[in-house]
């Protein structure tokens, strides 16, 4: 297992990068070039000095020499809306729903598909999809009522009658709709599911930017694009000896298909994982830290700590000492804030106007946060973030003050990078 040992001098250099004199900044850029290793391509999509600071990190922590078996700095990427524009979990869900590939519960009980479904949601799904045969693929390609109810529960978190669809979960460790997307893949082998993902991938990459598709009676997003800048960043990190991995709240078999195009093998991909019956997927969610959790906010830290650093039990939810933490992280949403906070060198945030992560990034307490507009269809400037009152997602799903490690409260933050 390769781990990063980050010396204080490196931390100080990275914290100061982009904030020194022009001569110092030029020196850092020259240092990256002088290594003879790959640096990031010049691209107008990079905001301010973000590219220079990333290159400085590569020069200080990376190496393009032949690996010597020693520690490698760990780089973690969220996937949806970080490496690609739009959401591959959505893309797969929509394709499976549109093509009638979700199976009805074998015993007719929808609560077996998710322990977090409310009685109201289970009843609504049972009624709307009553024509489906237990255990068989539901005809959501032709049964609009069934497709609409499933889509509403997934996309809106409520029934068509606007009743809550999920309850009883820790909102910092579970996003039940994301988990449900993986759980509804039950009954297929991973090989069969891979065929569905490949079909959805081809369709979404071929579609025009901005395209929509009809699912049930609703029009939903119908396209995905790889960000060229993030492809280049991943490939450059790999060329400089970083251990690059994906940590996503989409289903793991789905992310594996998309990540393979960037040279990331299955063992470098972490996503929502369900248990197997032989080689058949089930709706049973895998545990992390001794409880049901998915790669979502604190659940992302748990999965990384367990799988990469060998931390077991409840301690997997806790921040580890620096040698057992990633050097770099990239994300776009509140679901990414905890694993990004763990990164010891730089933390890249793609700005999608998500409150908790943007409060942390703009507060920039240690100087290691980078904010970049979305590379495709960047968001407009958001209203100032009320971090002191609604900057933190509470376990019960409510909002509270965002606090720094020392306990002080983060104040209002202006959206300055858009």
From TrEMBL:
Q: Which GO terms describe its cellular component?
A: cytoplasm
Q: Does the keyword Plastid apply?
A: no
The entry's keywords: Amino-acid biosynthesis, Hydrolase, Magnesium, Metal-binding, Serine biosynthesis, Signal
Q: Which GO terms describe its molecular function?
A: L-phosphoserine phosphatase activity; magnesium ion binding
Q: Which residues form the signal peptide?
A: 1-23
The cofactors named for this UniProt entry are: Mg(2+)
Q: Name one Pfam family in it.
A: HAD
Documented EC number(s): 3.1.3.3
* Enzyme class label: hydrolase
Q: In which pathway does it act?
A: Amino-acid biosynthesis; L-serine biosynthesis; L-serine from 3-phospho-D-glycerate: step 3/3
Question: What's its catalytic activity?
Answer: O-phospho-D-serine + H2O = D-serine + phosphate; O-phospho-L-serine + H2O = L-serine + phosphate
Q: Where is this region: Disordered?
A: 391-418
Mention one GO biological process in which this protein takes part, according to its record: L-serine biosynthetic process
Q: Which family does it belong to?
A: Belongs to the HAD-like hydrolase superfamily. SerB family.
Q: What is this protein called?
A: phosphoserine phosphatase
Recall the taxonomic lineage recorded for the source organism: Bacteria, Bacillati, Actinomycetota, Actinomycetes, Mycobacteriales
């Amino acid at each position: 297992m390769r781990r990063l040992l980050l010396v204080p001098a490196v931390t100080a250099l990275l914290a100061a990068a982009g904030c020194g004199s022009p001569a110092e900044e030029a020196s850092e850029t020259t240092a990256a070039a002088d290594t003879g290793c790959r640096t990031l391509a010049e691209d107008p999509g990079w905001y301010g000095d973000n590219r220079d600071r990333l290159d400085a990190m590569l020069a200080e922590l990376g190496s393009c020499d032949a690996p010597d078996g020693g520690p490698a700095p760990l780089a973690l990427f969220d996937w949806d809306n970080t490496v690609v524009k739009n959401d591959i979990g959505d893309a797969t869900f929509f394709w499976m729903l549109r093509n009638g590939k979700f199976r009805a519960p074998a015993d007719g009980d929808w609560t077996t598909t998710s322990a977090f479904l409310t009685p109201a949601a289970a009843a609504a799904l049972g009624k709307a999809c009553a024509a489906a045969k237990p255990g068989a693929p539901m005809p959501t390609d032709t049964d609009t009522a069934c497709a609409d109810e499933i889509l509403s529960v997934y996309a809106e978190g409520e029934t068509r009658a606007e009743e809550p669809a999920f309850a009883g979960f820790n909102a910092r460790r579970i996003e039940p709709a994301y988990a449900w997307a993986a759980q509804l893949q039950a009954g297929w082998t991973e090989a069969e599911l891979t065929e569905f993902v490949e079909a959805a991938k081809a369709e979404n990459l071929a579609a025009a930017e901005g395209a929509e598709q009809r699912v049930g009676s609703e029009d939903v997003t119908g396209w995905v694009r790889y960000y060229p800048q993030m492809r280049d960043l991943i490939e450059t990190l790999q060329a400089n000896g970083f251990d690059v991995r994906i940590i996503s709240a989409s289903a793991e078999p789905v992310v594996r298909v998309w990540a393979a195009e960037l040279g990331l093998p299955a063992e470098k991909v972490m996503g929502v994982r369900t248990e197997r019956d032989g080689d058949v997927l089930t709706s049973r969610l895998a545990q992390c830290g001794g409880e049901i959790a998915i790669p979502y906010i604190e659940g992302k830290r748990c999965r990384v700590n367990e799988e990469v650093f060998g931390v077991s039990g409840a301690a997997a939810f806790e921040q580890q000492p620096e040698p057992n933490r990633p050097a770099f992280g990239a994300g776009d949403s509140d679901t990414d804030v905890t694993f990004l906070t763990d990164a010891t060198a730089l933390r890249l945030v793609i700005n999608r106007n998500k409150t908790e992560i943007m409060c942390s990034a703009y507060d920039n307490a240690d100087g290691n946060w980078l904010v970049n507009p979305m590379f495709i269809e960047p968001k407009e400037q958001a209203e100032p973030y009320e971090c002191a009152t609604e900057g933190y997602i509470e376990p019960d799903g409510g909002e509270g003050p965002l606090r720094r490690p020392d306990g002080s409260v983060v104040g209002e933050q202006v959206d300055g990078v858009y």
